[in-house]
């Protein structure tokens, strides 16, 4: 696992991953997540500077955003979002109690394999019936966060249904860049889930933790 100091180094300058430019991803996330989060209480793990709290979770009844970086949390708090509060916390140590939906968008791949497994097992065993939303760059970049391995892990732990949606496309090679531009046209987003696997950059997984028999 990376430490608070590691992430604070990233946050030495605001918006280190240029997340505020990912407007297309935010639009797709909003479209996919609206029915799942509207009026619900959301626990947003790895919330960073609160970009998604603002851009995607505005329709949630309440959001608790947690992040290991105190710098990121100070910036998130300064947004003064009416439905959200923020805490500095390592989400591996956090309690997930008391929320309808748990989100882990673009943060689980910073954990080791073992930590990823323990995190998923905690949700599966301790939070039956809860919705878990997870996303990451799953192909090529950070190969260890692969679709095949995730699906195997989800199935083994009994998560169901397993739904996944593509969020964005690589900019390289040029063929992928053409597709990346096409999907930004009106109704282009409807093509997202049909694009070749090799072009997919980020993917969203929508899972329900198993209910005990
Ligand atoms: C790439 S940023 C993603 C921010 C936001 N979720 C988004 O998608 O726009 C990853 C965030 O996860 C946080 N993070 C990583 N590991 C964490 C942990 N164990 N506990 C809490 N936050 C963590 C980092 O500090 C960072 O803010």
Automatic annotation (TrEMBL):
Record's keyword terms, sorted: Methyltransferase, S-adenosyl-L-methionine, Transferase
Record's protein name: Methyltransferase domain-containing protein
One BP term from GO: methylation
Domain Methyltransferase: 39-119
GO molecular function: methyltransferase activity
Presence of the UniProt keyword Methyltransferase in the record: yes
Originating species: Bradyrhizobium ottawaense
Signal sequence residues: none
């Amino acid at each position: 696992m990376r430490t608070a100091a590691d992430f604070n180094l990233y946050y030495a300058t605001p918006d280190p991953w240029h997340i505020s430019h990912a407007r297309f991803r935010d639009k797709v996330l909003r479209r996919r997540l609206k029915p799942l989060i509207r009026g619900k209480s959301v626990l947003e793990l790895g919330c960073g500077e609160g970009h998604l709290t603002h851009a995607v979770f505005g329709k949630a009844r309440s959001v608790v955003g947690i992040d290991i970086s105190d710098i990121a949390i100070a910036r998130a708090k300064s947004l003064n979002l009416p439905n959200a509060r923020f805490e500095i916390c390592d989400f591996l140590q956090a309690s997930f109690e008391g929320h309808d939906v748990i989100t882990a968008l673009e943060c689980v791949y910073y954990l080791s394999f073992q930590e990823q497994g323990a995190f998923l097992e905690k949700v599966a065993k301790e939070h039956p019936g809860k919705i878990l939303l997870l996303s990451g760059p799953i192909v090529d970049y950070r190969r260890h966060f692969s679709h095949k391995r995730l699906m195997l892990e989800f199935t083994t732990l009994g998560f169901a249904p397993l739904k996944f949606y593509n969020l964005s496309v690589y900019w390289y090679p040029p063929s992928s860049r053409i597709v990346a531009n096409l999907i930004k046209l009106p109704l282009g987003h409807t093509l997202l889930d049909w694009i070749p696997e090799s072009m997919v950059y980020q993917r969203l997984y929508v899972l329900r933790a198993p209910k005990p028999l």
